[in-house]
Amino acid sequence: MTAYAIAHLRNHPGPHPDVIAYIERIQDTLDPYSGRFLVHGGAKEVLEGQWPGDVVMIEFPGMDEARAWYDSEAYQEILPLRTDHIDGDVLLVEGVGPGYHPKRKIDRLRRAADA
């Protein structure tokens, strides 16, 4: 099932040379794991709450590929180029499959509440 790496990046100081190098090199770390950018700090409209910073979302075929990418030597080598200059939260999350309906989640929640 598809998985995503999602980052909420804050407090970046502008185009630091290390961050530019990170962006120049990241795609080569994604390619072996079939990772592709879906969102990369594009325009946003905050509808609820506050959202300081940027959003990055990368799609992978599954959680195994997403974890393998993050843990890879190639990515770990460039990671400090970003983390030394930008604060952020990063997570891996599994997506839902085709035909997903939120009723499935409600059924699980009701069973858990009844237990």
Could you explain how this protein is built, in words?
Helices cover 40% and strands 24% of the residues. The protein is an alpha+beta fold and 115 residues long. The protein has a four-stranded antiparallel sheet. The longest helix is centred in the first third of the chain and has 14 residues, at 17-30. The mean pLDDT is 94.
What attributes does this structure have?
single chain, 115 residues, alpha+beta, Alpha-Beta Plaits, four-stranded antiparallel beta sheet
What secondary-structure arrangement, pairings included, does this model have?
Blueprint: E1 3-10, H1 17-30, E2 36-40, E3 54-60, H2 63-71, H3 73-83, E4 87-94, H4 103-114
Antiparallel strand pairs: 1-3, 1-4, 2-3
Can I get a quick summary?
By secondary structure, the chain is of the alpha+beta class. The protein has 4 helices and 4 strands; from the N terminus they run E-H-E-E-H-H-E-H. It has a single domain (3-114), classed as Alpha-Beta Plaits (2-Layer Sandwich).
Number of domains: 1
Which residues sit in consecutive blocks of at least 5 with pLDDT less than 50? none
- The helicity comes to 40-55%
CATH class: Alpha Beta
Average residue-wise pLDDT: 94
